[in-house]
Design goal:
Strand content: 25-35%
Shape: elongated
Oligomer: single chain
Number of strands: 5
Order of helices and strands: HEEEHEE
Radius of gyration: 21 Å
Length: 122
């Protein structure tokens, strides 16, 4: 095989992978709405893996090659304790192997400011 033919073949394989992977990513992505974060922590010292604790579930923020998601550090930096978010996550949690759902996107939900108490009279 000539180098031009090999390159075309590799591009074809890559294109097939991307086409199939796009459908897979869409079918395995879920939205979690109005989640209040209770605690966050780094899971390990030398990797981009984090845990996000909420009242109902523990999530992970980690890089994922199958989704071409390599921004775990940036996603984690957006998450603050006692804030409310909408998360895009993978649909499955595998408790038997201690695998949590992975957060891919974060949208902070603005909370209304607390009103100052009003004085009665005068």
């Amino acid at each position: 095989m000539s180098s031009g033919t090999e390159l075309k073949f590799l591009l074809f394989i890559f294109d097939c992978y991307m086409t199939c992977n796009a459908g897979f990513r869409h079918a395995t992505t879920d939205s979690v709405k109005n989640v209040k974060v209770d605690r966050v922590e780094r899971a390990g010292e030398n990797n981009s893996r984090y845990k996000v604790f909420t009242e109902d579930e523990v999530f992970e923020v980690t890089d994922d090659f199958s989704r071409f998601h390599f921004t775990a550090d940036d996603v984690y930096a957006e998450i603050k304790v006692d804030s409310v978010y909408n998360f895009k996550v993978n649909k499955k949690r595998w408790p038997i192997i201690s695998m949590n759902r992975n957060i891919f996107e974060v949208e902070k939900i603005p909370q209304p400011a607390a009103k100052a108490p009003q004085l009665l009279g005068n």
